[in-house]
Amino acid sequence: MGELAADKHVKYIVSVGKKKGSFESVVIEHMRVNGAYWGLTTLDLLGMLHVVDVDEIVSWLISCRHESGGFGGNVGHDPHIMYTLSVVQVLALFDKLDVLDIEKVSDYVAGLQNEDGSFSGDEWGEVDTRFSYIAICCLSLLHRLNKINVEKAVKYIVSCKNLDGGFGSTPGGESHAGQIFCCVGALAITGSLHHIDKDLLGWWLCERQVKSGGLNGRPEKLPDVCYSWWVLSSLIMIDRVHWINKEKLVQYILACQDVENGGISDRPDDAVDVYHTFFGVAGLSHLEYPGVKAIDPAYALPVDVVNRIFFGR
Ligand SMILES: [Zn+2]
Prior knowledge:
mainly alpha; binds zinc ion; Glycosyltransferase; Rab geranylgeranyltransferase activity; EC 2.5.1.60; single chain
């Protein structure tokens, strides 16, 4: 069995970040802020966050700010709750949350809650349980959950629960591992995990492991490294992670590495990208792979960062 090519992955991420001055290139231009989060969190998990220029990244992030209080995916782009969370997460990594106008950012996020408790992603109003998670995660990191109606938010998420124990994007929507992560994460952060049938959901999630050891996102789909994150995090939060074969999943993730040039892909021999590199390393973190820092399954940030935010240590 191969080993994690950590040095190569660090080089790969740094090279991606440098291609046009800041974190971008293989990451589509309007998603640069997300790319920064994936890349920088990977570096931190590998103990190498110190190789980047913090001031340069922080000032670029601030320049993605919109007058509404939200952040766009890049300079001059429209704000969206998804990019706003990525900015908060990156600033949390650097212990730089104080550069934010926290009231303004949290007002922007809280303002996206709808009457039924759901959240829209931006002013255009698309509703999805992903946005419920993003809002709750973001406001929790900013210590501003009191700005939303948490009870209604939880009620909406619970209304998206299916008979198979999973969750969909809206009431009646098909269960999907990514969506399940968002709903379980939001329920975990708000102390509402009692709404989940843990055995039923745990069973559905464990069935995502296929012969190769990898995990898929729905029945009959191909395995993909990113589900190592969505599925494992959900299993950890509901205390059922011992139901999957950890060794086989480690082998699957390692088989998706480009051991020459660095980076991790969705499946063996596919092209690597920052997104799957992050989810591969984060998955290995959940599998307690040596040399990878622990990551929090709900906040998707290293455990030491989460501890600093909530316990000041
Ligand atoms: Zn994927």
